[in-house]
Amino acid sequence: PKQAYVRTKPHLNIGTMGHVDHGKTTLTAAITKVLSDRGGATYVPFDRIDRTPEETARGITITISHVEYETATRHYAHVDMPGHADYVKNMITGAAQLDGAILVVSAVDGIMPQTREHALLARRVGVEHLVVALNKADGADPELADLVELELHDLLAAHGYHDVPVVRVSGLRALEGDPEWVASIEALLRAVDEHVPVPVRYVGAPFLMPVENVLTVTGRGTVVTGAIERGSVAVGDTVQAVGLGEGFTAVVTGVETFGRTMERGEAGDNAALLLRGVRRDQVRRGQVLAAPGGQAAHRRFAARVYLLTREEGGRSTAVTTGYRPQFHLRTTAVSGRVDLREEELALPGETVEVVVELGKAVALEPGLGFAVREGGLTVGAGTVTAVLD
Ligand code: GDP
Ligand code: MG
């Protein structure tokens, strides 16, 4: 039988962000290594994190790796993503719901374009707490590192992040077991423990989990994975799949997290749900599993959309009514048509009220955030203000 997951400590979702090659994956591996020596993690080597199989579902490829570890006071699920586009997609769509993030900045190279973009992105998607890992400190001139640290405080303050702890680390040297740098990782984890508060979870709300992945486990049936957005779920509960077609109702016959069984999955958990009598092809990434009757699929909605400027990675030209980008909502992407209503055009840098008609119905509700993308670029970030039909 599988081991049970015992909820003894608060669970938080965090992740590494930052410019390519600044050492996010190396640091992720180093954290698991340092904690595995203390019994708080299973060591996950660099190659296992960076070579997560790509999940291709309905035309979107997403790449995201989850590792888990425990400090003295918390249980963490930690995500690392290989490319900038993966951050944009996973963060804006809320596929990675981060309670806090570790912004990795190379002390040798300093602030780079994706450092700026990720700070902006973190603010836009509501990541309230950041800790900086000033990485590659093993090879950096300390005075240069001081300068990078000053510039970082300015950048972060400009996005409303104040008193952000900056910890000088070396993921690479910690992985090699160098005691000085192992201690730097411990200091980083202490900063995360202290600076990122346990979030308020909507455990009491009706259950909702966006479908991230679907697999068949031989002899057991269909397993659906995702991050529980709100509420809780236990064996014996009935859930309803909503969006992208007809949907279905099914009974949950197993709840697991990171390969261990759970009595009850709660908001904030990464869960795998075993569903009775459901075929794999009935479930799709982009649907939501919800408490019966609580959610409905819609195609039209009103929204407020901020159009990213070219400097933020967005468009350089205006959009007009009839514009047809992709809308990334929770774990799916659907094409849709934009109606600007009274406005003739909307320029990058503006926030506009629009009506959107999607090509397919998905679960929608006021307050839901989404990303607007075209040709591999994120051009807008929006919030649903009203569901129309
Ligand atoms: P990512 O793209 O942010 O995930 O960066 P990686 O973790 O893949 O690291 C990029 C490169 O930087 C690799 O060659 C690493 O070995 C190197 N690197 C990562 N961390 C450190 C560090 O702390 N010190 C030094 N000197 N090199 C590092
Ligand atoms: Mg990486």
TrEMBL record:
Can you name this protein?
A: Elongation factor Tu
Report which residue ranges the record marks as coiled coil.
none
Short name of any one Pfam family annotated for the protein: GTP_EFTU
The GO molecular function terms of this record are:
translation elongation factor activity
Q: Where is the Tr-type G domain?
A: 9-200
CDD domains (UniProt xref): EF_Tu (cd01884), EFTU_II (cd03697)
Q: Which InterPro entries match?
A: EF-Tu_GTP-bd (IPR041709), EF-Tu_GTPase (IPR050055), EFTu-like_2 (IPR004161), EFTU_2 (IPR033720), P-loop_NTPase (IPR027417), T_Tr_GTP-bd_dom (IPR000795), Transl_B-barrel_sf (IPR009000), Transl_elong_EF1A/Init_IF2_C (IPR009001)
